[in-house]
Design goal:
This protein is α/β, with parallel strands linked by helices and 285 residues long. It has 10 helices and 11 strands. The protein has 2 domains: 212 residues, Alpha-Beta Complex (Spore Coat Polysaccharide Biosynthesis Protein SpsA, Chain A); 57 residues. The N and C termini lie far apart (58 Å). The relative contact order is 0.13.
């Protein structure tokens, strides 16, 4: 086990409220997973535990992870098994960890060193918050910053339902730290096509989303977005809204209104991509 860097503080020795569990779901990201894990190692507030679950990667990811975890300065574990999908992997990670705070980092994404410390501090201040989140950098395959959500995402602090349903904007996964108790009440729907959006909707009914305007994480964009990607995402969000309508107490008319707004927003995105036929299809709904 590597020596702990003197500038780092381990959450294992802090009060229960400051203990953080981190899960890295790994899948076919051998070129990127080492950078993701090093960004966890370098946190100024170290997690109490790190669990990496390799979800049946066909590349060299398990070997890369196993080698790198030898340098992990805190409790860590690798589970390598057959493919079960991201939502099942996240639920497994949640069930196998214990910290009152939970975060997951995609195996191609990154955290800046102060990410966990900032998010824990925010949740400590906001007792009614179910999660804390913020802006994110978008990086390319070389790790170069190509965009930042602060330039275009109108995120909300507090009640997130209007943001999620009317503006159809959602936190990016590497920016989020969850409070475990509300997360365990819901977990990830393993039948959902879009893992986080439906969960955010369910969580928004039970508490606030605490927003930190700083960009302390990075989401990796591998290729340019295509109209096919946007169509899939719109359909998945429409499905998620329908799944949670009763839980959110939405009337049939309210659901139709939110879905019209989502169709319109999707049509705008498709028009920007030059796919007029698909845009027209969504506008006609």
């Amino acid at each position: 086990m590597a020596q702990q860097h003197p500038s780092q503080v381990s959450s294992a020795g802090l009060p229960d409220a400051a203990r953080v569990s981190v899960v890295v779901p790994s899948y076919n990201h051998a070129p990127f997973v080492a950078a993701a894990l090093r960004s966890v190692f370098r946190q100024t507030l170290q997690p109490a535990e790190l669990l990496v679950i390799d979800d049946g990667s066909a590349d060299d990811s398990p070997r890369v992870v196993e080698k790198l975890l030898k340098d992990c300065p805190f409790t860590c574990e690798l589970i390598a098994r057959e493919n079960r999908g991201l939502c099942a992997t996240l639920n497994e990670g949640l069930s196998k960890t214990r910290g009152p705070y939970f975060a997951y980092l995609g195996s191609d994404d990154l955290w800046l060193p102060g990410f966990l410390a900032a998010r824990v501090a925010l949740l400590e201040e906001r007792e009614r918050a179910v999660l804390a989140y913020g802006h994110a950098f978008l990086i390319d395959e070389r790790g170069e910053v190509v965009d930042c959500t602060s330039d275009w995402a109108d995120y909300s602090d507090g009640d997130a339902r209007a943001m999620l349903l009317e503006r159809t904007i959602a936190p990016m996964s590497p920016t989020v730290l969850y409070r475990r108790a509300p997360l365990e009440r819901h977990g990830w729907n393993e039948r959902a096509r879009l893992e986080d959006y439906e969960l955010y909707l369910r969580l928004s009914a039970g508490g606030e989303f605490a927003f930190d305007p700083r960009a302390l994480s990075a989401w990796r964009r591998h290729t340019s977005n295509t109209s096919r990607d946007f169509v899939w995402m719109i359909e998945a969000r429409l499905e998620a809204q329908a799944n949670v309508a009763d839980e959110l107490g939405l009337s049939a008319e309210e659901l139709r209104r939110y879905q019209r707004a989502l169709n319109f927003a999707g049509a705008e995105d498709l028009l920007r991509l030059g796919d007029k036929a698909q845009a027209l299809r969504f506008l006609r709904r």
